[in-house]
Amino acid sequence: MEKRDHVSFDGNAEEAREVLKFGEDLFPVAKRRRIASRLREQLPRSDVCTRPGPGGVRLTYLEGWRAVDKANDIFGFNGWSCSVSSLELDFVEEKPGGNGRPRFTACASAVVRVTLRDGSFHEDSGSGLAEGMPSKGEAIGKAKKEAVTDARKRALKNFGNALGNSLYDREHLKRLAKSKCEAITAPAVKAEGFPLGGSKDCDPRRALNDVTNRTSTMASKGTTLRIQASTTTRTELRSVNVTSVQGNPPAAAKDDTVLRQALDDLAHLADDFD
């Protein structure tokens, strides 16, 4: 049984409504499936950074801001939260600098918990190191910030490949090293009345190209195109204005941001059904 707070307005009990607490608000079934599908995606090369590591090895990582951006994209800006469970300063060292002024090095460790709106969570630890800083305060502050960022990234990667877990897959790292770009996978879509390879389940890039190519005239007139979104339990029909995917189809298909937005617009068809 879900727990709810009863909140009344203006003291009128008849106007009271139920407000779900964060962590007790379940995602709709269709959206849960969509989130699970997105989390299974491997990180594309465009999202991955590298830096020199020990022994001349190149280390692959996901930047902190990008991890947050991807979490907002997958879960929704109000679909997740993070909290710092612990934050400790491990050590601070003072050493003489080249100009005679002291330089400070600090190391910190943190534990961060990431919680989704339905209550599921992951928790992980991270560390931060600040070297050669001009003041003790700057060294401590930088080390703590890096520790929290590292812990948050490590907690997020536990949710799936799309949030960094794929960077622990050696085979995927080999593929990234060999290829200049990675294809994006997304929920399959079908334009009603426009066959897409004779199957309702098709490659999303081909689907987007097909929709944009076949509806450019309709889009210019503001026509609404009916799109069919299939789930494992049933099929629902809703309307989507094709202006969201209009424009130059080849350019749209090559632009990952435009492609993802258009596919998200189509995938939103089933979000309200549970």
UniProtKB/TrEMBL annotation:
Domain of life: Eukaryota
Record region (Disordered): 123-145
GO biological process: double-strand break repair via homologous recombination; double-strand break repair via single-strand annealing; mitotic recombination
Keyword DNA damage belongs to the record: yes
Keyword line: DNA damage, DNA recombination, DNA repair
InterPro entries with a match to the protein in the record: Rad52_fam, Rad52_Rad59_Rad22, Rad52_Rad59_Rad22_sf
Gene3D superfamilies for the chain: DNA repair protein Rad52/59/22
One Pfam family this sequence matches: Rad52_Rad22
Claim: DNA repair is one of the keywords in the record: yes
One cellular-component annotation, GO: nucleus
Record-stated family: Belongs to the RAD52 family.
Stored PANTHER family: DNA REPAIR AND RECOMBINATION PROTEIN RAD52, RAD59 (PTHR12132), DNA REPAIR PROTEIN RAD52 HOMOLOG (PTHR12132:SF1)
Protein's name according to its UniProt entry: Uncharacterized protein
Taxon lineage: Eukaryota, Rhodophyta, Compsopogonophyceae, Compsopogonales, Compsopogonaceae
